[in-house]
Design a protein that fits this description.
By secondary structure, the protein is mainly beta. It contains two helices and twelve strands, in the order E-E-H-E-E-E-H-E-E-E-E-E-E-E. It is globular and about 75 Å long.
Length: 187
Amino acid sequence: MPDKEKRTKKTITLGSGLLYIDEFNGTIPENADIESEEKLLGYIQGGAEVGYTPENYTAEDDLGYVKKTILTKEEASLKSGVMTWNAETLKKLVSTGRVTEDKVKGIRKIKIGGTNNQDGKSYVIHFVHKDKIDGDVRVTIVGKNQAGFTLAFAKDKETVIDAEFKAEPCDEEGTLIIYQEEILKTA
């Protein structure tokens, strides 16, 4: 039997995945470097959603004989609900967060707010969808959470933080989204 490509135009992608985060230092890390337990943002609920929105300008004559359209702006984002979190997670979701720990009292505290406390950090946000049959999918952006967050404590529902990371260019080409899919061949 000839080799068959794992991920084709007929592949159906089902399921969620894992969301990793690391401070952006100017280069995108290798998959093996970011896909570690200490860089896991938290387990997610509701999956992840990657969005891309182009904005175009069209020049057209009054009679509709000639028309030219150019891309003028792009936006990309990655949204996900973070179900397991702590103060260290929150610090990566706000630019004004300051975390301290008192080991004697056993207290970790985060202070949030004060525009003069902005840390200016951007993060590599890396989503991994594992699929043993059709091959893994990875989506990576560089950005910051710009949606803020709400902590809802209800008696019958887990507290999930809805994060929305707005993408920033991550290289000299202006790349906003890096999508990777495995195309391994099987016998």
